[in-house]
Amino acid sequence: MAEIKRIGVLTSGGDAPGMNAAVRAVVRGALAFDVECIGIKRGWNGLINNDFIKMDSISVSHILSSGGTALYTARSEEFMTEKGRQKAAANCKLLGLDGVIAIGGDGTFRGALELSRLGIPVIGIPATIDNDIGCTHYTIGFDTACNTAIECIDKLRDTMQAHERCSIVEVMGRNAGYLALYVGIAVGATAVLVPEIEWDLQKDVIEKIRNARIVGHTHFMIVVAEGAGKAYKIGEQIRQEIGLDPRVTVLGHIQRGGTPSARDRECATRMGYHAVKALTEGRNNIIIATRSGNMVELPIEEALQMKKSLQMERYEVMEAMASYRH
Ligand code: F6P
What we know:
Number of helices: 11
Oligomer: single chain
Order of helices and strands: EHEHEHEHEHEHEHEHEHEEHH
Low-confidence stretches: none
Structural class: alpha/beta
Number of strands: 11
Bound molecules: 6-O-phosphono-beta-D-fructofuranose
Shape: elongated
Radius of gyration: 22 Å
Largest sheet: 7 strands, mixed
Strand order of the largest sheet: 3-2-1-4-5-10-11
């Protein structure tokens, strides 16, 4: 087994709260195993452009509690090309990197797989607010994003209640409804629309508002996942159908920021440590995933083929809470 002496760490794709905690854990974990760590800046672009910094214990001493990523992030167009990846692999060799730990989502892992095919050992750490990675129960950043969205919607509810209004809130999640469903349950939404389940305006929105009104509610909260529909369009349809005057809020990138929650810091720290440990023990080209709270390792290629379906039990709970039977 080749000795691991120096590794690189990078963050790529959309940032997620807790990425910094993972970077810190990789650096501190590496030092614990007597391995040097280099921080590669701006995702895969940093490997292509030799954009890096030497990291030590002090350089990560204040980042555990901050959102964003101290290493910056990017979605690299150049890395999508064979030429770009060849350049990145050559730079790994130039820097003497015995492995690269890539923190990000499935796009990041597709890049990692390609780099591994050029002979560079890689390990992926799942971090995305979407929680849409098939191989893992949990992705770093999801909990904080849920909490941020909930805090915003609780505030919206105050003013919706005061004016007896209907609110349509669009949350992120790309093609996944995880964020919308968790948030919808936690804020007691009148209706939640997710991309995984086909929805009908009459049955899933209008009827729910009507039933809620009949049992005495005078304000309504509709949560829509960005992959399920456009909040402004749904607001307009509600106006035309039942004459309400909805207010639309697209939460947007606010969901990606903020100090990471306890869950995200703890998970990121464990994943970062386990990634380094795996490399030093000769395991690579894997993703560190969670299964019922435990850390597991899966080959990247296999992991990328796994699909994550929405948990129907959660959907059932949301539907029951929003049934407004009278
Ligand atoms: O994948 C994270 C995410 O925030 C998605 O929820 C969203 O669709 C996308 O990234 C937004 O990407 P960008 O920051 O490039 O606008």
